[in-house]
Amino acid sequence: MGEDAKWMTQIRRGALELCILSILGRGKRYGYDIVQALTEADGLVIGEGTIYPLLNRLKHEGLVDAEWQSSPQGPQRKYYTLTPKGETRLMRMRDEWQRFATDVERLLGRQGDEGGERG
Amino acid sequence: MNREQAGLVEAYLQRLARGMRGASKDVAREAEREIRAHIEDALGALPAQSPEALMQVLERLGRPEDYGRDMALFMMVDRGYRERSLPHMLRSTLFWALTTVTGAVVVLAFGLLFAAASGLLLLGGLGLRGAAGGAVAWSAGGQLIAGLLALLALPMSARWFVGQYVRHAVPGSQARRADREDWARRTERRILVTAAAGFALSLAAGLASGGFTIQPGEGLVDLLTRLRPSGATPWAWLCGLGLLLLGLAPLIGVAWSALRQGSEPEIDQ
Predict the structure, then answer these.
(1) Pairing of strands A77-82, A64-69
(2) Same-domain check for residues B120 and B230
């Protein structure tokens, strides 16, 4: 794996948890449904199966609840919902992410400007 | 789903079950049920349900051995951590070593470091010295240096191991990372305290007893038999106790942290 790919993997890994919490913040979802929502962001999920260990961890950390429910179409599905603790964590993570993204954007913009001035 | 497709799904789920070997049956069953539902959903969303379409679905899911192992490892580590269970911690360490390259390298390196530290420990703690005709005569200074090196090497290797374990074996949830790293720091401190106490005790008792002498032709087993109740002096017992504390410092440190779990403030809550 090249250095760029490694770097992207790290970024994806860090963002995935926030994205899953954010999707669940909009309402209850089941595994495949979450994967579908995640694929809206290109390249966020490489192996769809990898979200299950993460969902499992979030459940054990008390951030999400899970319950098997019948569905009118298709198989019985395990639905995940955000717990109050998960909502608090989501708000904190979202704030942190926005602050971080703004800082990085500002830094990249400044470097771009400096490059422009030099050129 | 026809028979051929059902066979492909069963083969995939068997691979998942193999990846999750070591996790509890309930967890493995639950994971299998969820992945089966995912496959049915994904297949249902496709216009044609051919074997090729199913292969695509399975390919997108990824290698079941990989995510199954992640799930199983997390469940074992989590159980050890939450239930303060040393056997589960040891089991998860073994599983980590057997299923990942990082785990194998870390556990092997720790074993070698630990063995080297234990060698120094025997020299430093017991104060071995040669009798007339023996090869080596250990002075109190030699004993002190070997003991100090052992004291340094043992907790350092344990500290490195605990750090690696927390960083790699506990899969990377960002949410509790700070909490786990705090746990690792406390554990490292406890390992060091236990090892220092053990070393001080073994050194003091070893020096007070004048050290243990290896007679020409005598092996380590012969020497250790002298720590048996029948032949041992109180100093030897104290020295043995100190050695035990020092040698088991990593396990005692982890068990100590596990027992204190819940009574200490968590920094990320």
Answers:
(1) antiparallel
(2) yes
Domain of residue B214, residue span: 100-260
CA distance B87 to chain A (A): 20
Q: A119 vs chain B: nearest CA distance in angstroms?
A: 40
pLDDT at B99: 73
Domain boundaries A3-118, CATH class:
mainly alpha
ipTM of the complex: 0.83
In sequence order, what DSSP letters do the residues of B182-209 get, joined into one string?
Answer: HHHHHHHHHHHHHHHHHHHHHHHHHHHT
Residue in B41, B66, B176 nearest the CB of A75: B41
Query: Looking at the DSSP assignment, which residues form a beta bridge with residue B11?
Result: none
Q: For residues A59 and A107, what is the distance between their CA atoms, to the nearest angstrom?
A: 36
The reply to whether B85 falls in a domain is no
CA distance A32 to chain B (A): 5
What 3-state DSSP class applies to B45? coil
| Dist. CA B198–CA B204, nearest whole Å | 10
* CB pairs A-B closer than 8 Å: 88
Please report the residues numbered 2 through 61 in chain A whose beta carbons come closer than 8 angstroms to any beta carbon of chain B: 13-14, 17, 30-33, 35, 46-50, 52-54, 56-58, 60-61
Pairing of strands B129-130, B213-214: parallel
- What does the block give as tokens for B208? 């007070």
Nearest alpha-carbon partner for A67 in B81, B167, B30? B30
Residue percentage of chain A with pLDDT more than 70: 89
Q: Using one digit for the tens of pLDDT, what is the confidence trace for A54-98? A: 898 888 888 999 999 987 777 889 999 999 999 999 999 999 999
What pLDDT does residue B129 have? 47
Contacting A with CB below 8 Å, chain B residues are 31, 33-38, 40-42, 44-45, 60-64, 66-67, 70-71, 74-75, 78, 171-176
